[in-house]
């Protein structure tokens, strides 16, 4: 195709299960298509080492730098896999947009840490690499997150209706796309993160496939009420959160140890579902179409419960596949799109979601 450019977006999210890489085609800053996907799982040791950085510990700076190098080796590997799959060379790619792995998100203190050695990724891949997308927004007074609403607006906006795009990763976030106003969005709270952590803790399995274990339990009303009382939910948007607030250690402070494990898991599913539904109802009461992406879409029990909770609002759940983008590809594709914005020196328009006082060109570039 003439006058088009290829970008690779790489995303590794709060769930810390691995890195998605998506090949997208752009014409300047105009989206054309997402063309291919590759995934590189995190090994057990890498994930454990990343999770250990969530807590204060010894030698954190050294450990962080070594993990940044390991991550960039993995990102370079998944990039090479994607190129080989499509019969492409590094010269065919205009740029990589790489988010890195969040290990600490503290917008109230003006910082958010994503681990990656972007210069190393550029060197290993042979492709110009753009990373560190959150710092510029934070410098302009924003939360540094979420960064995807502007991308969702570019792809999924309708002039005829208000839509919501719901990403259920470790943390859940929504993008509200009004028909006649700028998009905005925020983190609603836990998505898969607490459920995954509980399943790993109790059953030593990575996640609850299809929500089957949660379906065997019942909601514990007192536990649910205590979890929903978290002050984060009363904060106005823009707002963003992460493992710092909603951790397994925090969950344990609300448990007495006598609870049935399946009941706790069912309550955590209800917690995610109710906090998401309440966020949609309060911020987008006119929305009738909710398009879902992220790993949570595979949790059938969670999706069924969300559908029931949104029914009074007459809001129907759909996959983003109905809008021509695979739900597993959306977040990585967004960072390819942000890379195209950087290359074309276009502010991404994320400030409506993050609360930054002006639009900014996000990211920092590294030559191969």
TrEMBL record:
The gene is anmK. ATP binds at residues 13-20. PANTHER family: ANHYDRO-N-ACETYLMURAMIC ACID KINASE (PTHR30605). Its EC number is 2.7.1.170. It catalyses: 1,6-anhydro-N-acetyl-beta-muramate + ATP + H2O = N-acetyl-D-muramate 6-phosphate + ADP + H(+). GO terms for molecular function: kinase activity. InterPro entries: Anhydro_N_Ac-Mur_kinase (IPR005338), ATPase_NBD (IPR043129). Belongs to the anhydro-N-acetylmuramic acid kinase family. Pathway: Amino-sugar metabolism; 1,6-anhydro-N-acetylmuramate degradation; Cell wall biogenesis; peptidoglycan recycling. Keywords: ATP-binding, Carbohydrate metabolism, Kinase, Nucleotide-binding, Transferase. SUPFAM superfamilies: Actin-like ATPase domain. This is Anhydro-N-acetylmuramic acid kinase. Catalyzes the specific phosphorylation of 1,6-anhydro-N-acetylmuramic acid (anhMurNAc) with the simultaneous cleavage of the 1,6-anhydro ring, generating MurNAc-6-P. Is required for the utilization of anhMurNAc either imported from the medium or derived from its own cell wall murein, and thus plays a role in cell wall recycling. It comes from the Bacteria. It is an enzyme of class 2 (transferase).
């Amino acid at each position: 195709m003439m006058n088009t450019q290829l970008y690779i977006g790489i995303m590794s999210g709060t769930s810390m299960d691995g890195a998605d890489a998506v090949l997208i085609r752009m014409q300047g800053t105009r989206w054309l298509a997402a063309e291919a996907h590759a995934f590189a799982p995190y090994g057990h040791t890498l994930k454990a080492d990343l999770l250990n950085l969530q807590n204060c510990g010894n030698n954190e700076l050294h450990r962080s730098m070594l993990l940044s190098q390991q991550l960039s080796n993995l990102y370079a590997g998944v990039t090479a896999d994607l190129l080989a799959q499509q019969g492409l060379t590094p010269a065919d790619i205009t740029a990589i947009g790489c988010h890195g792995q969040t290990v600490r998100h503290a917008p109230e203190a003006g910082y958010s840490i994503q681990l990656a050695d972007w210069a190393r990724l550029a060197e290993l891949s042979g492709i110009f690499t753009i990373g560190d997308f959150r710092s510029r927004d934070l410098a302009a007074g924003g939360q540094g997150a979420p960064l995807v609403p502007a991308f969702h607006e570019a792809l999924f906006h309708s002039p005829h209706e208000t839509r919501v795009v719901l990403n259920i990763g470790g943390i859940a976030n929504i993008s509200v796309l009004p028909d006649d106003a700028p998009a905005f969005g925020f983190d609603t709270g836990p998505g898969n993160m607490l459920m995954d952590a509980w399943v790993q803790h109790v059953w030593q399995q990575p996640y609850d496939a299809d929500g089957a274990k949660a379906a065997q339990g019942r909601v514990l009303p007192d536990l649910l009420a205590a979890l929903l009382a978290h002050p984060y939910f009363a904060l106005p948007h823009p707002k963003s959160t992460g493992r710092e607030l909603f951790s397994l250690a925090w969950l344990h402070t609300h448990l007495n140890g006598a609870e049935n494990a399946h009941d706790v898991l069912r309550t955590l599913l209800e917690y995610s579902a109710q906090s998401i539904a309440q966020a949609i109802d309060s911020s987008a009461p006119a929305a009738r179409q909710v398009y879902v992406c992220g790993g949570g879409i595979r949790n059938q029990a969670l999706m069924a419960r969300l559908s029931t909770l949104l029914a009074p609002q007459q809001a129907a759940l759909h996959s983003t596949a109905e809008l021509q983008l695979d739900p597993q590809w959306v977040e990585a594709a967004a960072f390819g799109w942000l890379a195209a914005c950087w290359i074309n020196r276009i502010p991404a328009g994320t400030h409506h979601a993050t609360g930054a006082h002006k639009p900014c060109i996000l990211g920092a570039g590294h030559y191969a």
